[in-house]
Amino acid sequence: MRLILEVWRQASPQVQGHLEAYEIDDAREEMSLLELLDRLNHQLIEADQEPVAFESDCREGICGTCGVDIDGIPHGPEDNVPACGQHVRSFNDGDTVRIEPFRAAGFSVIRDLIVDRTGLDRIIQAGGTVAVDAGTATDADALLVTHEAAEAALDFAACIGCGACISACPNGAAYLFTGAKLQHLALMPHGKMERGRRARAMITQMEHEFGPCSQIGECALACPANVPLSAIATVNKERLRALLRRKDN
Amino acid sequence: MSSPTADPIPLAARPAATPAPFPPTWALKVIMALTGSLFVAFVLFHLAGNLKVYIGAEDFNHYAEWLRHLLNPLIPGSGFLWAFRAVMVGSLVLHVYSGITLWVRGRRSRGNHPRKFIARRLSSRTMFWTGLIVLCFIIFHILDLTMGKLVAADGFDPADPYSNLIHSFSRAPVAVFYGLTMALIAFHISHGIWSVINDLGGTGKRLRSVVFIVAGVVAVVVAIGNLSIPIAVQAGILAVS
Ligand code: HEM
Ligand code: SF4
Ligand code: FES
Fold this sequence. Notes:
The complex is a heterodimer of chains A (249) and B (241).
Chain A lengths: L2 E7 L8 E7 L8 H14 L22 E2 L2 E2 L21 E5 L8 E3 L2 E2 L2 H10 L4 E2 L13 H11 L6 H5 L6 H12 L2 H4 L2 H15 L8 H5 L8 H15 L4
Parallel strand pairs in A: 1-5
Antiparallel strand pairs in A: 1-2, 3-4, 3-5, 6-7
Helix pairs in contact in A: 2-7, 3-5, 5-7, 5-9, 7-9
Chain B lengths: L4 E2 L18 H26 L6 H12 L10 H32 L11 H4 L1 H21 L13 H9 L2 H28 L5 H30 L7
Helix pairs in contact in B: 1-3, 1-7, 1-8, 5-7, 7-8
The complex binds protoporphyrin IX containing FE, iron/sulfur cluster (SF4) and FE2/S2 (inorganic) cluster.
The site of iron/sulfur cluster has 15 residues of chain A, from helix 4 and helix 5.
């Protein structure tokens, strides 16, 4: 099938980017979006042109490396599926498909479809890790975690850190991402020990680079890990808890 | 190293170009939620009073009078009313200040590529605009029916709120403006109540579903209840006897 791809080309962070149209004659329904870009790049290389720079790694929805806006929708038209899992069958023969990098002020374009997502790393660095001395290994069953808590923690730990929630957000907010991490760790025995301090540090860092949440809910539709929308409420819940409790835990 | 201890986690180096916003976003959101909830409570209370218009002029005027002397003799004269007005105006200033600040921050954090795709309800995307129109309405409404200045109907009589209301709504443009604003307030309230539960940290599944429904119901009740009054006046069901 034939597709027109309008792809964002930008050689470096310093220059203006623009959309450039390319034609693909032999796209197949079962191709993933990334394979479509691979196809385009083959074509470009054969024609002695610069291939389109984009990121990917696992190509099976677990690493969070891929991510582009397809017709303005992070990852693509299907809800809750990463770009590597989206397929060409979402389009019709002859369609024009616009492929842009993730968009937010906090994500500057490095090259073509690759954006700088280190802002997410800085939120994690601020407190998204467990930094307590847990002592020598105790019996596995000495620290009880209920089945419900474990399941709930997993729902939020599922975040693969792709950044789609931010590109989806009309405010460029990172609440779903930050809330997912806060909620995940707040449910775990060691994570709980620094719950208050973590909330203060991560939320402050989040506010440095990303916007406010207006409860619009675009993020949870884009999220390839199906992080529940309640994560956006977790942010203020943890912050208010830290405020009232005035403790590190 | 006996009991597990927690070492402080250093805050990541601040990117110089992006200082932490002040006041913090989370605090502004909590202010929005508290002041917004106060407004919702007031709007509902106000609606209940407004509906007395259907019982009759005397009852309605009595309600307006009662409102003026609420909590007498605890607070003398119309002291309560003034204290109440101070709280409302203060809250409005905070609500509008926070709303505008958050809106500006959102635009800035979004950057040069505004998101056009709208998957969710229109109400959430229009909070700022419905809010601004409601603000204009509040000013108009107070001039019209409380102070009787500038935009008020001819023959405004501070002692007869009922007649003032009928006279005001007999003017077609006012009735239409009032009706439209009520629809917008309903939009604002429906997304507003949903925002409150998020801003105050409501994460429970059942709580969130209940609040989502309550938000819609309150919005519809406020819209229909208040809308009925200008319609009734225009239709001649309510008139000065
Ligand atoms: C009858 C009057 C009003 C009522 C009942 C009301 C109610 C609410 C409520 C309950 C919220 C949710 C607060 C939260 O974030 O938790 C809200 C949000 C908001 N209000 Fe109002 N409001 C009123 C007037 C106004 C006015 C005059 C403005 C003027 C700008 C305004 C602007 C906003 C904005 C921009 C938000 C969204 C904030 C965000 O989530 O980013 N509101 N309102
Ligand atoms: S919350 Fe979802 S959309 Fe956001 S970074 Fe994590 S996986 Fe990606
Ligand atoms: S490439 Fe790993 S999630 Fe898409």
